[in-house]
Amino acid sequence: MTFNDSFITAIGGLKTNKSRSALTILGIVIGICAIILVMSTGKSAEDLILNQIRGLGSQTIFVDPGKEPQGPSDFGEIFTDSLNQKDIDALLKPSNVQGLKDLTPVVMQVMPVTFESEKIRTNIIGASDLIATIFDIFPNEGAFFTDDDIRQKASVAVIGSEVKKKLFGPSDALGEKIKVKGRTFRVVGVLQPKGQVSLFNVDDMIVVPYTTAQQYLIGINYFNEIIIQAESEDIVPRVVRDVKLTLRETHGIDDPDKDDFYITTQADAVERVQTIMSILSILLVSVTAISLIVGGIGIMNIMLVSVSERTHEIGLRKALGATEDDIMTQFLLEAMVLTALGGIIGIVLGALFSFLASLILSKIITFGWIFTFPVIAALLGFGVATLVGLVFGLYPARQASLKSPMEALRYE
Known about the structure:
Elements: H1 3-15, H2 18-24, H3 26-54, E1 60-65, H4 85-91, E2 100-115, E3 118-127, H5 130-135, E4 139-142, H6 147-151, E5 156-159, H7 161-168, E6 177-180, E7 183-191, E8 196-197, E9 200-201, E10 205-209, H8 210-218, E11 225-230, H9 236-251, E12 261-265, H10 266-288, H11 290-309, H12 311-319, H13 324-364, H14 375-401, H15 405-410
Parallel strand pairs: 3-10, 5-7
Antiparallel strand pairs: 1-11, 1-12, 2-3, 2-6, 2-11, 4-7, 5-10, 6-7, 8-9
């Protein structure tokens, strides 16, 4: 009996019980669909984050307080007070850090903001006007505050487009007085709509001089972050080295393992995001793959029932000359065809649900969510589905091939 004959016979066997065949592959369909959905959404999220990071420019360097997090227990170190004005003064000396173009300290906190009867809570970012250059956010009304405003700790603010809409509606915001945590600020600029940049929603934040935020709003004498801009991409490694040496000197640190700060470049951030997303994808795919095992067990059970019901057919075929290999091949092909079909349906449904999820997320997250179809995941899913049929169909097929033709023909 040729392979082609076995295949046609297997298809015929599946067609006789269409409803059972459809229910049998349900676990496989759900498993493959979930894997495609997880990997598609994960890849789209990774691309989104990486595009946001790369959008800050390859010359940007971030200095954060505390030890670099290596696990969940280390995240408490992020909120330390190890970066202060003494560090800023030292870093700005050309003799300490060569190739440093500019820097801005950053402090941030969510606070209540009011204008007349309107009240909202939003992100208050204390920084210098360098943040406009780094994040490519410039006012389309008014202007950014100046270095004099920073030195004088002026109560001036640049607001995002959403903040303007919530507080002022269609009215002009320039020159108006808002209150942040009870202190009066004069609006000097309104940012152009930009959406999400890195971790900041530019449209829903207020930028004030960092000196003002430190003294009058947050009440701290340290910084949550220092953002540095190097003169060119080529010298970023040298700038990073000089920054480390300078901060170790100002902090009195001799052992690099005792650093109370850590530095991140754009290349570092990209690598970390890719690593984190890969680990998350593997974890989620591993969880969803459990349904494939459940589906495989279901297929094995159904195939065993099918073998029992078709005992007379097996005996008749053996009496007409079919060998054990022919019987085994037929039932093994039935299992593999079922799971392969389930894999194809799962891939199609997974792609459809991923596309619909992308449409919804692009409406909710209005800053560049793009649908991504993981071709490798689809091919892998199809292969795994077929393999599940082979593995879990092997035992029922073997049981069918070992039946005695005489006993099988007497079976009712």
